[in-house]
Automatic annotation (TrEMBL):
Coiled coil: none annotated. It comes from the Bacteria. Residues 1-28 form the signal peptide. Pfam families: Amidohydro_1. This is Amidohydrolase family protein. Residues 83-420 form the Amidohydrolase-related domain. Keywords: Hydrolase, Signal. GO terms for molecular function: hydrolase activity, acting on carbon-nitrogen (but not peptide) bonds.
Amino acid sequence: MNRYTSRRRVLSLVPGLAVAAAASPALAGAATGGSFVVRDVRIFDGHRVMERGSVMVTGGLITEVGGLSRSSRHQVVDGGGRTLLPGLIDCHVHSFEGSRADALRFGVTTELDMFNDPSALPAARRQRRSAAKVDQADLWSAGIGVTVPGGHPLRPDWDFPRVVADTDIERFVADRVAEGSDFIKVIFEDGGPPPRPSLPTLTTGQVRSVITAAHRHRRRAVVHAEKLQLALTAVRSGADGLVHVFWDTEGGPEDIAAIRRSAAFVVPTLSVVDWGTGAKELLADARITPWLSATQRHLLQQQPPDRPGRPDFLKIGSANVRELHAAGVPILAGTDTPIRANANGVSMMIELSHLVRAGLDPREALVAATAAPARAFGLADRGRIAPGLRADLLLVDGDPTTDITDLRAITAIWKNGHLVDRTPPEQERAPQLDGH
Ligand SMILES: [Zn+2]
């Protein structure tokens, strides 16, 4: 696709913007955030829906919401028939070169990385504090997750520190914090059932020690657990959140109540157990395909290797999401990209559809992708449309608070108040990480 024509296409979808952009010095400014007004638009503020209002952005920050008290010389975007939302937050990704740009082009303005090389973290921290025009999502990261030799994730190509029997856990966690980990990710995964191999994992005592050390360092501790019993042990050990839902078996009322009592949140990542059905749906959607990079398309086309006799993880996981949500457990949206036919940004569209099928209403699914993760992870400057917050915004045709698939009809994305160019890059970059 020609860069010039596709840029024109974006602008032509926003009446008034092409003209106003030329007249507005703020939009061209690189060092500070952009300024504009979206008028007469349905507003989903991260919690509630206002059927008609306006939002003013000045210097990259949201300055007014609802009825505007001041006039301005900002460019005006007509919101008629559209919905304005906070930029989406994907609570479970693994980044690689170019992945955060892919995310941003689908309205995911913030990503939480759940296991990765910590070398990119100082730059990520600088970016997320700035209001500059950027071409990629902001990032928070666990850095290196806590696991054991031979344990999940299996990464023979990467020699990262792991916990052994005599590891000083306090020191181990302190090292992660020194590397820049924003939160601590614990891998509690014993593998199996056959033909999947069983795997060594942390002891219950080690899990508890890691969580305690994380809290001493004022870091949240989140746990990878795909099985009910491991999930229960994790929350009883003080975990702040589970970054998959358990999908080995349906939890009973006592199990669900125990998780509720723990106050832990759950990031279900149902898109990683749909075995590519969600990816097929995206690849057949004309609202999606023009904006896919070669890398996103490649990832969505992967057919995950299935296992004969595999339980229906999506069905079991969805039933657990339904019960957890009904009990009041905070549900947060996350995709686990690029694992199993998931791609950054775009797969959030499927994850939110899965959450709606599991029993959240569309507005609740949007809360799970905006205000709820901001609250759960302490991201105070984003996740809602409110005065003083960062202007990470998404404008879509229709009303995703009643039909979640309307989220796919993106009209405009702003990061720090700057309009995002959705033109996909043509070159493919292979993701490096294969575990989760
Ligand atoms: Zn993962």
